[in-house]
Amino acid sequence: MELKIGMKQKLHLKAPGNWINDPNGFIYYKGKYHLFYQYFPYEPRWGTMHWGHAVSDDLLTWEHEGIALFPSKYADQNGCFSGSAVEADGRMHLFYTGVHFHETDPEDIHVCLNDRFESAQLTICSEDGFHFDNAKGKKVIIPPLEDPEIGDRTHTRDPKVWRGKDAWYMVLGSLSKERKGKLLIYRSENLTDWEYKNSVTKEDGFGWMWECPDYFEVDHEKVLIFSPMGILKEKDAYENQAICTLVDFDEESCRMTIPDTYQFLDYGEDLYAPQSTVDKDGNRVVAAWLRMPKPVEGKWIGMFSLPRVVEVCKGHIYFRPHPEVKKAYSQKINAVTKAHEGGYRISMDLQEQEMIDVGGYKVFRKNGCIHTDRSEVFGDCKDYKVQFATPELKDGCHVDIYVDDNLVEVFVNDGEYVISNAVYGLKKELQTDSKEKPEIYTVE
Length: 444
Hints:
By secondary structure, the protein is mainly β.
């Protein structure tokens, strides 16, 4: 698979060849959804970051538009890293982190040595959301930080911008002098001139660097999603994880309070760097990058989750399948072998000690929790975790399992918890010891 302008993908947006990671600039703009993404266009591995670009009318069918941003300035010479998008005065404004290496591996120009680089925050705008002037349109809005009391010159990145009641606000992930993760909060009247206002951190248990922060309000609650590095210390697990929590934020003082408790965005632990936007109907929607240990057929690596609607009920954050997703998987079939190439959904209740085996990927209920086991469909991927579990369930025992060749997403009780896992070599088989016969749906 290679990038071709106009190339379309349905349901799960995947790397158009080579490598992708974080979703960026997720926005509904002039009647279309735009999702940019971290992209290395030369090999299926991490390297100098560009922004790839895909658009959709419905969050399900995506068309690749090619490369939107590429390194062209001193400040982003070694990569256009993650950021966000807003609309103002009819134009699309992108914000991103530019990286400049001070010491480069002489054997591989895409690798920085000894963590010797600096990060700046840049902006670029477009009249139509498709054309970006990389030569003359970029502007540095926050240069590399000089004051370590504010944040780290190297590890400050991933601007998320939103409109508040009377101004624009930005949150950045950073690192304190004590090597604890922190968020930096800025304010602007015009999207160009930004004033540092405040920061927030936690003492223990929240990792050493907070990537990809995202703040928004939903259901009269204030939600913070971010990706702390080094938060997990388990054997075989990814140390860096996406978490979410309800916070208190005051615009006037830019003061944010983060509690001591949090949820994982996804209990499969493979999803990372989520970003949200508001859809055409006002729903808060999030997408996240699926980390994959190896390329598919040696050609591409990285894809995104199905879009999820964020809701808050009784202090718990739910991630529900987007209404367009539910509508898409609506054709009932009697065997998974009859499913559309885009995949299928299995819907059923799982009682205690019951299991369903989806082509070698096992989902079962034990001690009031939903568990998954991908050990039979993870090939030769050594040193990676293969078993996962939700916390104890509150709302019932229903599961909706969305199955793709390389991604299985298990929504428990309509988003009370979700387990998403990268897989390789799923079989077109289905077995269960449940008393209830599972219902199977595919895409019309």
